[in-house]
Request: fold
Amino acid sequence: MQQPCQPWVDVDRYIADRLIGDDPPFDRGHLPPHEVSPPQGALLELLARLTGARSILEIGTLAGYSTLWLARALPPDGRIVTLEASPEHADVARRNLAGLPVELIVRPALETLPTLTGPFDLVFIDADKRSNADYLRWALALSRPGTLIVADNVVRGGAVADAAGDDPRVVGVRAFFDAVAAEPRLRATAIQTVGAKGYDGFALLLVDG
Ligand code: DHB
Ligand code: MG
Reply:
């Protein structure tokens, strides 16, 4: 995304210092710094708690940072299924997620999704952006009325509003918006964010019958 400006970074640090307490212990290894920020991670935990989620599907594990936050919301009988295409990413995530009730499946998500059994109470879409509309279709297929679907990186430094953009990640996010708009079962919004991760945003979709 667009590089963060210093006040966004400072305020993210302030929020984390005042409100968030201990960050889950986490090692990124040599992977790209694409994980959510601590305030965003805490939001994922809150959303999972608000929905009373016991089964969570995450599409795109990377190093498992958001998975760690989501796991904090789980009741004792809860579970997370997290999908990661890259064996290198998965090796880092496996170490971060050791001992948690997390099933990490290492294969392109579009190959794994048809094999899963739902419904999931919460789905977090945070993988390669070009497949976002397909991920949304599978999230719906694996949902029930009341499932919350959260999608990361739907603003991309503002590029999402540029219909002429040819970055395949932006094209993928715009296809995702089109699919949401065409789906009568979803009540949806998207929120722009600034912070230590730059200018981006997330979408919240409630499956509504
Ligand atoms: C990218 C992907 C992410 O999930 C993220 O949070 C930030 C950036 C990317 O592919 O550029
Ligand atoms: Mg992301």
